[in-house]
């Protein structure tokens, strides 16, 4: 059975790793991760890509959480008769909704990073917010945050340094929580088995 996965670009590599480890026959169609900076565009992009690929596969699925679409993505997947990953955002997928709720209850000023965000922090955050040109705006953007929590999937020395540098760039202390691929793997298995 051929399965096509429309995936957030921030999850595509991780899904590829899981598929390779489990010898899953998936074709991954990544969308640009920077769509997260414009969540109002996600549903339309997913809709267009699903329309393009659905005849190529016996089954399709969507590897996005809601990601700030406020239900617009659910309307698209219902129209196409496919499933998506659960949760409000990828943090729920990696760490589990209850753990994210616990971390937020502990400190509502928590800024989350994933391995993808650690690797792409300068481009995804600093450049996108214009902090490369206007660094004095940093405190305006991040004044209500009190810590960075890195939800590490596959931590390395290089990623650890990049996470430390990212937290330093926005002036916040870093905490690391190793979450691995367990949450994403479990949700992906459910997604492709339905």
Verbal overview:
The structure is a single chain. This protein has 10 helices and 6 strands; from the N terminus they run βαβαβαααβαααβαβα. By secondary structure, it is of the alpha/beta class. It has 2 domains: 3-89 and 181-193, 3-Layer(aba) Sandwich (Rossmann fold); 91-178, no CATH class. α2 (42-53) runs parallel beside α3. It starts with a strand and ends with a helix.
- Report the major sheet: 3 strands, parallel
Which regions have little confidence, pLDDT < 50, spanning 5+ residues?
none
Radius of gyration: 17 Å
Q: Major sheet: order of its strands?
A: 2-1-3
Distance between the termini: 12 Å
3D shape: globular
Number of strands: 6
Q: Percent helix among the residues? A: 40-55%
CATH level 1 class label of the largest domain: Alpha Beta
Work out the helix count: 10
What features would you highlight for this structure?
single chain, 194 residues, alpha/beta, Rossmann fold, 2 domains, three-stranded parallel sheet, 10 helices, 48% helix
Short summary of the structure?
The protein contains 10 helices and 6 strands. With 194 residues, it is of the alpha/beta class.
């Amino acid at each position: 059975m051929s399965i096509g996965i429309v995936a957030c670009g921030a999850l595509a590599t991780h899904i590829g790793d899981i598929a390779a480890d489990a010898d899953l026959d998936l074709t991954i169609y990544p969308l640009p991760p920077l769509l997260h900076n414009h969540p109002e565009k996600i549903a339309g992009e997913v809709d267009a890509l699903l329309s393009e690929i659905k005849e190529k596969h016996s089954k399709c699925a969507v590897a996005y959480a809601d990601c700030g679409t406020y239900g617009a993505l659910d309307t698209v997947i219902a129209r196409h008769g496919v499933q998506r990953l659960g949760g409000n955002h990828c943090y729920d997928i990696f760490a589990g909704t209850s753990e994210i709720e616990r971390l937020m209850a502990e400190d509502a000023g928590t800024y989350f990073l994933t391995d993808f965000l650690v690797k792409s922090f300068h481009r995804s955050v600093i450049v996108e917010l214009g902090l490369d040109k206007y660094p004095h705006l940093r405190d305006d953007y991040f004044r209500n945050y009190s810590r960075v929590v890195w939800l590490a999937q596959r931590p390395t020395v290089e990623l650890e340094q990049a996470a430390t540098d990212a937290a330093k760039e926005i002036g916040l202390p870093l905490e690391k929580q190793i979450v691995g691929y367990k949450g994403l793997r479990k949700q992906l298995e459910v997604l492709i088995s339905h």
